[in-house]
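Hi,

Apologies if this is the wrong queue. I'm a grad student, and the batch job for NIPSNAP domain-containing protein from Inquilinus ginsengisoli produced an output file that my downstream script rejects. I'm not sure whether the problem is my script or the file. Here is the sequence I used:
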Amino acid sequence: MITCHIRYIVDQDKLPEFETYARMWLELLPRFGGTHHGYFLPSEGESDVALGLFSFPSFAAYEDYRRKAATDPEVAKAMAYAKETRCFLRYERSFFRPVGTEG
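Support response: The file is valid. Your script probably expects a header line. Output copied below for reference.
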């Protein structure tokens, strides 16, 4: 199993738009075989960081998701929404594997 950690730099004035974007992916990702662990938005204080976590059974399964998502109309809609609203400025993606479990 691999888990993808996405760290977003968000526009604090557009947190409702980012939440809409996140909810789109909460529904989309499982259609491609992934398990979404959720999005985490700034709660208190000054923060422009939001997090997203999701897993796939293997890196090959993740790569398959990326290929399929590239031509999916609902994914295109989510990406267009993010571009239109500019609800996040940038993101970085990291991958992790669990220790002490099979996979």
